[in-house]
Amino acid sequence: MSLKDLVPDLYDGVREFEVLFDVEDNLIEHLDQQMHQVKANQWIQTADAQTIGFHEQLFGILANPELEDLTFRRQRIMNRLQSMPPFTVPYLRDHLDRIFGSDNYALIVNYEDYQIVLESSSDNANWFQEANIIINKIKPANIVYIQSPTFFQRIKIQESATIAPLSYFRIGRSRVGRDQLLKRAEEIEVSIT
Q: Labelling 181: which of 20, 92, 116, 189 has CA 20 to 30 A away?
């Protein structure tokens, strides 16, 4: 909508008012865009880079815009905001499910030795680092955290066994350099039970 639509027809064709209305229309459009951006900055999911940078300063995060896109930075802040007590193993598993996916990690809690072992496969180094930060924030001080990068893939193993008798040379019956010192007979396959 333009201001020209709101004034009487008396101003039609007056050059000064047309220029004035065009300038004011541009200012109103710019103000409208800024108001929408202020509303968008109220939530992390729609915030711009400047607002995300402000939140990163609050959490003490030093962002690297060359390696981390705005979507990752938003998700990292959401992840940090959701890190509120009580901290339990199911709570930690829920966080790790969001970071790695439910089938891409193994969490082993060894209560007797006070250890948490995370075997994970991550395509992105940023999420790998984020998992380390979250676990170190959640785990109690007396528990040791061990990160074990792992690649999860199914492997098919097939076993077989063969027997091949070996016969060695006997002193006095072979000539050094001409006869083999060790002879291997033909392999015979055996069954494994």
A: 189
CA distance 131 to 75: 12
Instruction: List Cβ<8 Å contacts ≥24 apart for 180-183.
Output: none
Flag whether the pTM goes above 0.70: no
Cβ atoms of 161 and 178 within 8 Å: the answer is: no
Q: What are the pLDDT digits (tens) for 29-45?
A: 999 999 999 999 988 89
Q: Where are the domains of the chain?
A: 3-40, 161-190
Cα diameter, the chain:
129
Q: What is the dihedral of CA 36, 39, 43, 48, to 10 degrees?
A: 40
Question: Which helix (DSSP H) or strand (DSSP E) does residue 105 occupy?
Answer: strand 105-110
- Side chain identity, residue 133: I
